[in-house]
Amino acid sequence: GAGVSQSPRYKVTKRGQDVALRCDPISGHVSLYWYRQALGQGPEFLTYFNYEAQQDKSGLPNDRFSAERPEGSISTLTIQRTEQRDSAMYRCASSALDREHEQYFGPGTRLTVT
Amino acid sequence: GQQLNQSPQSMFIQEGEDVSMNCTSSSIFNTWLWYKQEPGEGPVLLIALYKAGELTSNGRLTAQFGITRKDSFLNISASIPSDVGIYFCAGQLTSGTYKYIFGTGTRLKVLA
Question: Residue B81 and residue B14: Cα distance in Å, rounded?
Answer without folding.
Answer: 9
